[in-house]
Amino acid sequence: MLIVQNHLVNESNRVDTLSISGGMAEYSFIPGGPNLIAPYLKNLAATAYLGKETAQKSVDVPVEGNRPKEQTFTTVSPEIPFMILRDPPGDASYSYLEKNTKTETALRFSEQVSGSVNVWAEVKVGTKFELGVFGSSVETEIWGKVRGSLEVGASVSGQERAGHLPLQARTV
Known about the structure:
Blueprint: E1 2-6, E2 14-18, E3 41-50, E4 53-62, E5 102-133, E6 136-168
Antiparallel strand pairs: 1-2, 1-3, 3-4, 5-6
C-alpha cells in the first residue's frame, strides 16, 4: 500500500491511498496554482507499506504557472467626520462634550456592480423587377427592413456593516 500526501493540488492536504502491484504504483493528478511565497515550493510525501517494512520519501517541488490576483482594488474615501459639535445660533450659546463621555456610531459600506449585453440584428429583404405592359416597361423595387434586439442585464448590490466604532471624548 502507498499513502500519498499531496500538497501540489489546490486542496490544503490531499491524502490518497494506492495499491502496489508488482512493486509499482501509478499516481496521476493535476497540480494546482503556484506557491507565491518564497521559497515557492509545494510538498509531495509518500509512505510505502510492504509487509512489515515501511519507506518514506518527501520531495519539495516548484509548481509553475500563474495565479490571478484576488481583489486588488483599494480606495480611500475623503476624511469623514464621525461627530460634529455645532455652535447653536444666539448670543452666549456653545456646545461641548464632557470629559469621559463615550459615544458610539455605526458605519456601513455599500457596493453595486452591474452589466448588460445587447445583441441586435437587422435584415433587409426585397426584390427588384421590371413590369412590361403594352410595349412599355416599368422598373419596380420593393424593400423592407426587419430589426430586432435583445438586452440582458444584471445588477448585484451588497451592504456590509463595519460595526460600531466606539469614540472616546476628550476635552481640548
